[in-house]
Amino acid sequence: MYLEKTVVLESTENKALTEILDDYYLAYLSRQLSLLGRREVHNGRAHFGIFGDGKELTQIAYARNFRKGDWRSGYYRDQTFMLYLGLLQPEEFFAMIYGDTDLNFNPSTGGRNFNNHFSTRNIDENGQIKDLMTTYNSASDISPTAGQIPRLLGLAQASKLVREHPELKEKLNNNVNGNEVAFGSIGDASTSEGMFFETINAAAIMQVPLAIAVYDDGYGISVPKKLQTTKESISEVLKGFKKEKNTNGLEIYTCKGWDYEDLVKTFEKSIAECREKQVPALIHVQEVTQPLGHSTSGSHERYKSKERLVWEKEFDCISQFKKWILETGKADEAQLEEIEKRATKRARQARDTAWKHYTESYSAETESLAGIVSQLANKNIKSVDHSDEFNAVKNKLFPTRRALFSFAKRLKFELHGIDGLTAEKEDLKNWLGKFEARTKVMYNRQLHREGVDSTLNVEAVPVQIDKDAPMVNGHDILAENFHKLFAKYPNLVTFGEDTGFMGDVNQGMKGMQEAFGEHRVSDTGIRETTIIGQGVGLALRGFRPIAEIQYLDYLMYGLPTLSDDLASMQYRTMGKQAAPMIIRTRGHQLQGMWHAGSPMQMILGAMRGIFLCVPRNMTQAAGMYNSLLEGNDPALVIEPLKGYNVKEQLPSNLGEYKVAMGVPEVLNEGSDVTLVTYAWNTHHAVKAAQLLKELKNISVEVIDVQTLMPFDVNHRIVESIKKTNKVIFVDEDVPGGASAYMLQKVIDEQKAFNYLDTAPVTLPAAEHRPAYGIDGEYFTKPTVERIYDAIYNMMRETNVKKYPPLD
Ligand SMILES: Cc1ncc(C[n+]2csc(CCOP(=O)(O)OP(=O)(O)O)c2C)c(N)n1
Ligand SMILES: [Mg+2]
């Protein structure tokens, strides 16, 4: 616990007393931090702040029960919880508000995330997830309300899996012991979110050690409980979930946020039972206050009634705690005053240290820029003397990199037209280069794993097909390959709708549950958000989960968790946290508005940070799974729905061969037009290429990108265009969707524009969803004939004589 202990006393009674006074110190310190933090924003030394005032006692009582190996997944009010465990230092509290980018000083966010968004490391620089039983652990916080809840399911499930299968312990490098609890926290209003209810239901069914404390301060910003929660009470609402004798369900507890004894008792009991029996617990902490209002962005006097404000003052948990200490004679006024003084001093010191650290981090760069500005001033040329503007930037109360960089860039623009000043121009150029490189590290790196565990490092291993290889259904290749993977990786688990008993709706997991057990291959309810959450939590604790979403069109139900949590995890923690999970789904084509969609643009836009694999057949899909399990990047694999019952040759090195990420494959060599595509359209493309060759002697180079994220890392496509001078992008997303993404990558990033002799073409699906049936699909999506038309017309553009109109 982070504290300067009051006095160390011997007897049990005295120990309890010391603990109480320590708690008072911590609650008071935390409140001072909130007060000072708010002031920093209002003084203009920080942009924004959100604090945990009013919730101090609740969190102390909650954190008391946290053990090494446990996991927290909470929200922005949890500063006292984190202080109690020593996971937050007062200095760091301020460093977060200022946005200090020094990861040593601001380890939770490195300046990337809001203040009070906490995290601990779960992965080391070598990509090893380990030693989690020796530390207090916290998933990294996100701002979307209730977004922290789905992952609790996986964090808790990991304990259950290991308790029931102790042999897993060793396979997880002893990162999970089986007795750990996943501690969640959420505001009362955020329980209105669907993902909260979905998680409660799943946890109550699965019976996992998950505790959720609801901090009920009666408001979600300004909107009161009566508009948020039925009967104005989440514990009342959830009564139907309550565990009865011989049923599954949830234990529900209530207590009051200003009553220290009640809080301590309730949390002790609820967490002990949750830990021992692995029954989820909901602790509804009522009558909580929010003395400083929601955040620094507003004032609660605007929407709280006078009576409420009076009540909040009286029932402030620290005032009530003090009253109780005095009334029960545990300490006198003078003792408490001494504690208060000490806490206030500590908070101020922390603020000053953090501010100094933040501002000094600018010193070297500011000074070297000052040198350039004064060199210019010494030239005695009025137009190049920018000392005054520079001093204004330098003396800003709140220094920012933006102000410095913007000044330096503009200075560069100004000097550009002026003759001479060679040395100064060179110095400025160097300054800008160095500054930008440093800023990039601070803000633009770590979207994906960058060390030895980057999946980009996994090299391709060719698939081996023996001469007499049998032709089997696509799903058999997947199933046999998964069989090898489950044997090879003892921490591999999979789950989803119909994944377990049935082996998924398309039989890719056929026989897996029988072979590897229900704990590793399991069914879930229909609940895409928490299927993803389950994966995130399990991956954080060292499992390798494959979370199955039954069809690509239903990925949308899991999208918030994929986008807000999984995709941003690596980035928002600067690589300190990774959840290397695979999302397995299937889609693109198979007749039906919600069974044939290909919403790639949605994924490309919302899921940067997650690899996107788009195999054209099951041999390729299996090779992708083989690669992904060797790296630590999360990935989505979309198996082509039409391919399960198509025959493929059975490889002889299943589980071994690998597809390199971001490396396209040329399926058909050609010299007239480059056709770039992926997934099922590769088949249409190859057929169209054959037909064009046969009928018109047009030679098409067909390129399968294999993965959309990463995309053609070695710029293979532009090499093809250098030869053909024409490019067409074919896919079955909406116009302006993934085809436009590929176009941007190739034309803009790979600079293919210089090599084109006709306009680049995109051939996507129609704007609407794919209509039902063979015809509905045919007249919505790209086809062999449409590809033929498009390519012929491109040829015609450069040689009208040779290629007369098709009609
Ligand atoms: C999905 C989403 N919607 C809206 C918001 C904006 N927002 C931030 S906090 C908040 C209120 C949350 O209230 P509550 O859950 O009671 O927590 P409290 O702040 O009162 O502790 C809202 C609406 C958000 N962050 N995320
Ligand atoms: Mg609230």
Automatic annotation (TrEMBL):
<dbReference type="Pfam" id="PF02779">
    <property type="entry name" value="Transket_pyr"/>
</dbReference>
<dbReference type="Pfam" id="PF00676">
    <property type="entry name" value="E1_dh"/>
</dbReference>
<dbReference type="GO" id="GO:0007584">
    <property type="term" value="P:response to nutrient"/>
</dbReference>
<dbReference type="InterPro" id="IPR001017">
    <property type="entry name" value="DH_E1"/>
</dbReference>
<dbReference type="InterPro" id="IPR033248">
    <property type="entry name" value="Transketolase_C"/>
</dbReference>
<keyword id="KW-0786">Thiamine pyrophosphate</keyword>
<dbReference type="InterPro" id="IPR009014">
    <property type="entry name" value="Transketo_C/PFOR_II"/>
</dbReference>
<keyword id="KW-0670">Pyruvate</keyword>
<protein>
    <recommendedName>
        <fullName>3-methyl-2-oxobutanoate dehydrogenase (2-methylpropanoyl-transferring)</fullName>
        <ecNumber>1.2.4.4</ecNumber>
    </recommendedName>
</protein>
<dbReference type="GO" id="GO:0009083">
    <property type="term" value="P:branched-chain amino acid catabolic process"/>
</dbReference>
<keyword id="KW-0560">Oxidoreductase</keyword>
<dbReference type="InterPro" id="IPR005475">
    <property type="entry name" value="Transketolase-like_Pyr-bd"/>
</dbReference>
<dbReference type="GO" id="GO:0003863">
    <property type="term" value="F:branched-chain 2-oxo acid dehydrogenase activity"/>
</dbReference>
<dbReference type="InterPro" id="IPR029061">
    <property type="entry name" value="THDP-binding"/>
</dbReference>
<comment type="function">
    <text>E1 component of the 2-oxoglutarate dehydrogenase (OGDH) complex which catalyzes the decarboxylation of 2-oxoglutarate, the first step in the conversion of 2-oxoglutarate to succinyl-CoA and CO(2).</text>
</comment>
<feature type="domain" description="Transketolase-like pyrimidine-binding">
    <location>
        <begin position="472"/>
        <end position="646"/>
    </location>
</feature>
<dbReference type="Pfam" id="PF02780">
    <property type="entry name" value="Transketolase_C"/>
</dbReference>
